[in-house]
């Protein structure tokens, strides 16, 4: 396959071509997790990939907090994702290999010692179960259990980074919001059924799923995407039955889509996040307009799998204002009737 064919195949695999899912869980599984830093963007990413026209927010809430078939937790690269609940044991097994949070530089930056982090991890199962706790309540329970009030600042300030190692070990995920406050629960108590997965099996499963959504790619790119130790990724690729395209590996039996596609993808869309470094998906010059400072990933205009512009909704009208990276073909303009073009 050439680059154009690979990009069209990836669009199909992301449920943005001829196929759509009927359930948010299927979307999360197909794209190896839906980015959930921004709730509205996550909902839009799911909406674009499903056939369901009902109230999507209600559908996501039902999957997360009623059926509990979907979970919101810190996952790949330590960022918030929506994941299928049934797949969480595999994610946890793979994430348990992470070592970044044991490094002195990480500990010092977040104001804790290695001993305190070890004690926090050990205390979490004592204080967190199936009853949702707000961040303040969880902090208070951990501090009371450990008798260490110096942990109050690290536990309650910032974006919750000190809680990520608990999530990586399957000790914590999001519970239903309480007003404007987030809550946390223990996944094993919240989900119910939990079968531990051997580490190698977990990494193999996630690597194959990754290639099925973001291939062709090599082991180094999978390691970067997941934030996995490169040797573990390399061993997984050696074990897998995958096809070397010359530009990277893909699962066997791929089929290339033929229809043209034009999409306005939301901020932090999985397709954009997973494609920035591969296959000349976006030209080098405007890459900074897509991947911006402080980790912000812009909403993008994607045509046949290639990122060719960014967009933002007009504050007054809500109409998308598209900034293309070059001249837009007439066919693309015709496919975007409800937008303004800024150049």
What does this structure look like?
It comes from Spirilliplanes yamanashiensis. InterPro entries: AlkZ-like. With 343 residues, the protein is α+β, with helices and mostly antiparallel strands. It has two domains: 3-191, no CATH class; 262-341, no CATH class. It has 17 helices and 13 strands. Strand 12 (320-324), helix 17 (330-334) and strand 13 form a beta-alpha-beta unit. Helix 5 packs across helix 12 (199-214), helix 7 (114-127) crosses helix 8 and helix 12 packs across helix 14.
Shape: globular
Count of individual beta strands: 13
Mean pLDDT reading = 91
CA-based gyration radius: 21 Å
* Portion in helices: 40-55%
Largest beta-sheet characterization: 5 strands, mixed
Strand-residue proportion:
15-25%
Structural class: alpha+beta
How are the strands ordered across the major sheet? 9-10-11-12-13
Regions with little confidence, pLDDT below 50 for 5+ residues:
none
Total helical segments? 17
What distance separates the N and C termini? 33 Å
Short description:
With 343 residues, the protein is of the alpha+beta class. The protein has helices at residues 3-13, 24-30, 39-48, 56-66, 88-95, 104-109, 114-127, 135-146, 152-156, 164-168, 187-191, 199-214, 219-226, 230-239, 270-275, 287-290, 330-334; strands at residues 34-35, 70-74, 80-84, 133-134, 173-178, 181-185, 243-244, 249-250, 262-265, 300-303, 306-313, 320-324, 340-341.
């Amino acid at each position: 396959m050439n680059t154009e064919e690979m990009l069209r195949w990836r669009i199909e695999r992301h449920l943005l071509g001829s196929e759509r899912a009927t359930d948010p869980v299927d979307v999360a599984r197909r794209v190896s997790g839906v980015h959930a830093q921004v709730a509205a963007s996550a909902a839009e990413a799911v909406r674009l990939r499903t056939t369901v026209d009902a109230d999507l927010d209600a559908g996501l809430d039902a999957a997360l907090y009623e059926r509990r078939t979907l979970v919101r937790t810190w996952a790949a690269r330590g960022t918030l994702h929506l994941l299928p609940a049934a797949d969480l044991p595999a994610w946890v097994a793979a994430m348990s290999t992470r070592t970044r949070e044991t490094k002195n530089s990480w500990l010092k930056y977040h104001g804790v010692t290695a001993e305190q982090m070890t004690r926090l991890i050990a205390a979490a199962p004592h204080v967190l179960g199936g009853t949702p706790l707000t961040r303040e309540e969880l902090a208070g329970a951990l501090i009371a259990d450990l008798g260490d009030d110096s942990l109050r600042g690290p536990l309650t300030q910032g974006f919750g980074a000190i809680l990520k190692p608990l999530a990586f070990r399957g000790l914590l995920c999001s519970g239903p919001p309480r007003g404007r406050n987030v809550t946390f629960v223990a996944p094993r108590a919240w989900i119910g059924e939990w079968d531990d997965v051997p580490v190698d099996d977990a990494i193999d499963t996630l690597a194959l799923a990754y290639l099925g959504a973001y291939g062709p790619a090599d082991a180094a790119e999978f390691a970067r995407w997941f934030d996995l130790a490169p040797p573990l990724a390399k061993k997984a690729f050696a074990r897998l039955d995958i096809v070397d395209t010359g530009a990277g590996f893909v699962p066997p039996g791929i089929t290339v889509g033929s229809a043209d596609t034009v999409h306005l993808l939301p901020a932090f869309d999985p397709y954009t996040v997973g494609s920035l470094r591969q296959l000349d998906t976006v030209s080098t010059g405007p890459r900074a307009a897509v991947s911006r400072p402080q980790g912000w990933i812009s909403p993008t205009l994607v045509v046949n799998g290639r990122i060719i512009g960014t967009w933002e909704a007009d504050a007054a009208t809500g109409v998308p204002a598209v900034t293309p990276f070059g001249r837009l073909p007439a066919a693309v303009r015709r496919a975007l009737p409800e937008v303004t073009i800024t150049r």
